[in-house]
């Protein structure tokens, strides 16, 4: 009996890790480079605690987890009225469309760094056709394949770390500036994103609270360790700025490139290049399939309940063509898409709204009620900062000239 429980909880832990590890981990060092290693670790630990807590909050909502047809808009329509429903719909579309755009742009950029024979648009379309075809198999295929794909991710991730460690330099880890941490928080939110599969996890584990907590806390903890390890090796190996070679983090930030691209340029070894490609493709494809499946289900419910449309072709087109078109029109918005997803969509659905749930149903004066207020304040601050940057009211991004002048 104990072995069955462990295996079941472990399998869902794999699913959590598989959903977390995607574009977020590849963007993390590039977006947090100006803050430095130690502030980045502190921010990662804080976001790990906050996002794990909001995941546990969702897992406790029986009206969301017990009904196979329940979704977040319906749940928040019951809790917060019509306004809550439409806020959730808009935020969920930002998340699901945004992550698919990020995956398409990220994979295309990585493949283009290896070859220049094919145009970027052709590379993106080929990858899109393959991964959307895999997504058509749905959650059953995901549950079967995810443990194997996560295992491949761990093996390739370990190989990448092993190859980069010799190039880690202590001076690269010494630079720090806490003022740039707020600019990296949206990417940290993205790096801990898996909340959309919580109802499925709860039903699969038959609402066993102990197994659910084990899967969620265990999965996010593994993700946190991998994120911090990746920050260590990337920030330690790459300088903030190198005006001579331009193999640095600030250049990658300016080009909206994933962290593996400047590392490939630094190491210049075919083994690293292809291992990095395998890691990125498997990580992003796993997350693409999970989010693509969630988007299909969400879009089907949205247009059937609000517009009375049940056509599968229409659902597929509305789900996948918009992110493909955005990716083709703006192929260099990898980091921009991730910031928008984390700083707006995930802040609202997976931060502020769970805080409202806790605040609404907790006894007056209890620690839990205060924790709900803390969640609302923390995630609202991230949302305000991100909106301020998007509308040009704030500028917290690293400045190339500043780092060129001040770094060694």
Describe the overall structure.
By secondary structure, the chain is mainly alpha-helical. It is 79% helix and 0% strand. It has a single domain, classed as Amino acid/polyamine transporter I. The protein has 18 helices and no strands. The radius of gyration is 21 Å and the shape is globular. Residues 1-7 and 400-408 have low confidence and may be disordered.
List the helices and strands and how they pair.
Layout: H1 2-20, H2 23-32, H3 37-59, H4 62-65, H5 72-112, H6 120-135, H7 138-164, H8 170-174, H9 181-191, H10 198-204, H11 209-237, H12 249-255, H13 260-267, H14 270-307, H15 312-329, H16 334-361, H17 367-390, H18 400-406
Q: CATH class, anyone?
A: Mainly Alpha
Number of helices: 18
Helix fraction by DSSP (H/I, runs of at least 4): over 70%
Instruction: Tell me the CATH topology.
Output: Amino acid/polyamine transporter I
- The CATH architecture comes to Up-down Bundle
Which series of helices and strands comes N to C?
HHHHHHHHHHHHHHHHHH
Number of domains: 1
Distance between the termini: 58 Å
Radius of gyration, in angstroms, nearest whole number: 21 Å
CATH superfamily: Amino acid/polyamine transporter I
Mean pLDDT, nearest integer?
Answer: 83
Enumerate the spans where pLDDT stays under 50 for 5 or more consecutive residues: 1-7, 400-408
Count of β-strands: 0
Helical/strand content category: mainly alpha
What shape does the CA trace take? globular
| Sheet with most strands | none
How much of the sequence lies in strands comes to under 5%
GO molecular function: aromatic amino acid transmembrane transporter activity
Membrane topology: Multi-pass membrane protein
Keywords: Amino-acid transport, Cell inner membrane, Cell membrane, Membrane, Transmembrane, Transmembrane helix, Transport
InterPro entries: Amino_acid_transport_2, Trp_tyr_transpt
């Amino acid at each position: 009996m104990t072995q069955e429980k462990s295996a079941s909880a472990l399998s869902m832990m794999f699913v959590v890790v598989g959903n977390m590890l995607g574009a977020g981990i590849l963007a993390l060092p590039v977006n947090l480079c100006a803050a430095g290693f130690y502030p980045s670790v502190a921010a990662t630990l804080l976001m790990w605690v906050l996002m794990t807590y909001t995941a546990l909050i969702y897992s406790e909502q029986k009206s969301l987890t017990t009904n196979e047809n329940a979704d977040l808009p319906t749940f928040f329509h019951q809790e917060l009225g019509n306004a809550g429903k439409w806020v959730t719909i808009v935020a969920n579309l930002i998340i699901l469309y945004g992550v698919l755009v990020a995956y398409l742009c990220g994979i295309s950029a990585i493949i283009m760094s290896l070859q220049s024979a094919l145009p970027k648009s052709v590379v993106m379309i080929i990858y899109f056709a393959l991964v959307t075809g895999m997504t058509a198999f749905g959650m059953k295929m995901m549950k079967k394949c995810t443990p194997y794909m996560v295992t491949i991710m761990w093996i390739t991730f370990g190989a990448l770390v092993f190859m980069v460690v010799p190039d880690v330099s202590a001076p690269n880890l010494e630079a720090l500036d806490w003022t740039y941490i707020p600019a990296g928080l949206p990417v940290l939110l993205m790096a801990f994103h898996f909340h959309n599969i919580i109802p499925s996890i709860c039903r699969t584990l038959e609402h066993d609270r102990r197994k659910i907590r084990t899967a969620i806390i265990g999965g996010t903890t593994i993700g946190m360790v991998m994120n911090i390890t990746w920050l260590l090796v990337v920030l330690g190996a790459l300088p903030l700025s190198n005006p001579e070679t331009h193999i640095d983090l600030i250049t990658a930030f300016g080009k909206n490139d994933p962290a593996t691209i400047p590392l490939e340029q630094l190491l210049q070894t075919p083994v690293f290049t292809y291992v990095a490609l395998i890691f990125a493709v498997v990580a992003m494809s796993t997350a693409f399939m999970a989010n693509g499946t969630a988007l299909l289900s969400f879009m089907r419910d949205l247009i059937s309940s609000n517009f009375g449309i049940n056509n599968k072709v229409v659902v597929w087109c509305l789900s996948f063509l918009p992110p493909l078109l955005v990716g083709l029109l703006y192929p260099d918005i990898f980091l921009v898409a991730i910031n928008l997803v984390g700083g707006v969509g995930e802040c609202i659905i997976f931060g502020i709204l769970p805080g409202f749930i806790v605040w609404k149903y907790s006894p007056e004066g209890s620690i839990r009620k205060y924790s709900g207020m803390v969640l609302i304040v923390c995630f609202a601050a991230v949302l305000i900062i991100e909106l301020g940057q998007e509308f040009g009211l704030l500028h917290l991004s690293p400045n190339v000239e500043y780092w060129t002048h001040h770094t060694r």
